[in-house]
Fold each of these.
Amino acid sequence: MVDVVLLSGSPRKNSNTMEVLDVCAKEIEKNGLSTEIIPLRGMTIQSCVACNKCVEKGNCVLKDGLDEIIEKIRKADGFIPASPVYFGTARGDIMSALQRIGKVSRGTDDFLSGMVGGPIAVARRGGHTLTLQEMSMFFPINDMIMVGSRYWNMVFAHAEGTTNEDEEGIEMVKLFGENVAKLIQKIKS
Ligand SMILES: Cc1cc2nc3c(=O)[nH]c(=O)nc-3n(C[C@H](O)[C@H](O)[C@H](O)COP(=O)(O)O)c2cc1C
């Protein structure tokens, strides 16, 4: 069991999104909680097919591996999805994952209720805010607690390994990670 699950929507090997999640996870760990970063790389995440079988079975019945990720999120206190921006919006697979995670939570034991987190977006030049808005819709509808920072959780990067060039973006992600960890600890104390 881990305290905070971080989910990357990037398909790339040396992914900027993974790099940003690594920074965020390190900050959460510095503040006393355990983390696991799960990449969707190599997976093909289907959209929800509205079969409603999760209600009866307790998890998603689609066989693409998301059910195992859902089991990890079910046991966690925090959840942070992150996506590269594709044509101004989040990559499709992460939105498919979020919709199915939400559907399973609401159809079973409401495991997302009270969970702490927030989204992160990574892009070369533009589309971060709409991507964050898209992913943000997931939190309040699932009775979750979305955490702030001093700016939105967005990082500018294009070529592999360039996230550090956006110093302000990285500082904001660090503060966000720290805030997530501190809030979880306050809630649990
Ligand atoms: C299909 C596609 C669409 C993209 N669309 C945008 C975009 O709308 N705005 C932008 O700034 N960058 C865009 N990018 C660039 C990526 O968001 C950027 O390279 C990001 O760092 C990739 O993150 P990753 O390494 O984690 O996959 C696009 C990249 C791809 C492959």
Amino acid sequence: MQSESPETGTCLSLRNPEERRAVAEEAVALHYDDDPALARRYGPAGRAKCVEDAAYHLAYLDEAVASGAPALFLAYLDWVRSLLAGLGVPEADLRGQLAVLRRLTFPRLEHDAAHAADAILDAALRAFEAPPRLPECFIDPAAPLGVLAERYLAALIGGERKRAAELVLAAVEAGTPVADVYLEVIQRSQREIGRLWQLSRISVGQEHFCTAASQAIIARLYPHIFAAERADVVGISATMVAHVDAVRRLVQGIRDDARGRAVRILVGGYPFNLAGSLWQAVGADGSAPDARAAVLAQADPETADLPQRQRGDGPQLGLVLDHQDALKRHAGAPHRAAPG
Ligand code: B12
């Protein structure tokens, strides 16, 4: 049963983007009143970005509370600290904004959510005492296919799309398994591109160019990939914490459809690796630490290395949905106005 907030008599729901937005506006107004230097530092356009950021913090906070996984918010905090540092935003401003959000949300959320959110924000504010944890480089020339990954990434960042395609296609034609090229070269390069953007080392334009090139190159690998006619297993991958609720609704949508009832659903990707039991919270049948392990779990449930996760025993992994396209189409995932 939901209890009401003692102060207002009604409960704030962070699940609702409009309510998040209203709290974000209020938080920025309060923060600017407390510290008049903010208006001079950021100007009107900067103020609008502060509101967007605050709404974004609330979306991640909501997901961490709803999933009972504070790690989701604390990992986000590391990310947002490094991103804003690269953009020249003083850390004290982010810290101040989170403190105001804590002040505003605690009295208005339903009792359990209020305490959960407060504990998460308390841990977040204390985390500022240490530097943020930064992601390490995803490319290791000593790893299998590491040199190819290094060359592929250099070609993309240098704007040489044709060269990048040739490198990958030559490797596949020479017998390198597509799965290895996908995981060790393309996936790693995409993650490294994200890291370089996060640390302000490449521009949004470069990131978009590299991603479009990788998508086109993946499409050229399709003829090499076996396509199953019927799915016994649906694999759903999320790249961002803000997409976990979309995954939850997608799982529910599949379950609600008579054709989807017998299908086994595996979920994975970054948020599921941050919080080990999150797959249960979204109603899936299991999870795997990466795409290869998910396929192995289906092919050979006895030998697949899936510690602490449920092993699958269906015969065929049929479909993988990823990042924003499929999830957004299905469930309207949040989108931030600033490109990235
Ligand atoms: C390309 C990209 C985009 C593109 C997406 C295009 C598209 N068609 O999807 C665009 C430019 C639109 C975009 C937008 C944004 N992005 Co973006 N994006 C990326 C980037 C650089 C690469 C994504 C990718 O291709 N990864 C490669 C794939 C192969 O790997 P993967 O995503 O991990 O997915 C695989 C695994 O999850 C695997 N898998 C693992 N385990 C399991 C288990 C099972 C069972 C299964 C089935 C699969 C599976 O399956 C997947 C497929 O192989 C990432 C960086 C990164 N680390 O991924 C940032 C990244 C995800 N983006 C980020 C951000 C912030 C954004 C924006 C908010 C930016 C903004 N200000 O607008 C928006 C949000 C958009 C939205 N609607 O939500 C951040 C997220 C940070 C965070 N803390 O969550 C990242 C991490 C970049 C960074 N380092 O800062 N993005």
